[in-house]
Each structure stands twice: as C-alpha cells, then as structure tokens.
Amino acid sequence: MPDMHALAALPGSTDLLAVSSSDQGPGNLIRTVLVVGVVGIVFLAWFLLRGYGKKD
Predict the structure, then answer these.
(1) Which residues contact 6 (CB under 8 A, 6 or more apart)?
(2) pTM value surpassing 0.90
(3) 7-12-14-20 Cα dihedral, nearest 10 degrees
(4) How far is CA 30 from CA 19, 23, 24, 33, 45, in A?
(5) Ramachandran area for residue 23 (φ above 0: left; ψ -120 to 50: alpha; else beta)
(6) What is the greatest pairwise CA distance in the chain?
(7) pLDDT (tens digit per residue) in 6-52
(8) For residues 13 and 7, is the Cβ–Cβ distance under 8 A?
(9) How far apart are CA 13 and CA 23, in angstroms?
(10) CA 13 from chain center: how many Å?
(11) DSSP state of 26
(12) Pair 14, 8: CB distance under 8 Å
C-alpha cells in the first residue's frame, strides 16, 4: 500500500484519484472478451480432441 502522504504531495494526484473513482472503466468490454475467449478455448479443445480416441 503506497504512503498516502507521499501520494498527496504529488501535483495533480487528487485529480487523478477523482477521475479514477468516478470512471468505471471498460468492464463490459473485458467481460465480453473473457467470455468469448473461454468459449473459444472450449471450442478449440473440443475440435482438437474430438478424434483423439478414434482408431481406424
């Protein structure tokens, strides 16, 4: 945990903290990317392993 007195001594740190507290960030985008990534990994695993146990 950073020292709050040292952080307050930096010019503009209160503006940065005010912006970061009100900004929610790219939450929906990250959530969508994670879901699509997990589904893609599952699909890739299924595609690669679907013929693994088959013998001619």
Answers:
(1) none
(2) no
(3) -100
(4) 20, 15, 12, 5, 22
(5) beta
(6) 73
(7) 555 556 655 555 555 556 778 899 999 999 999 999 999 999 999 87
(8) yes
(9) 15
(10) 25
(11) S
(12) yes
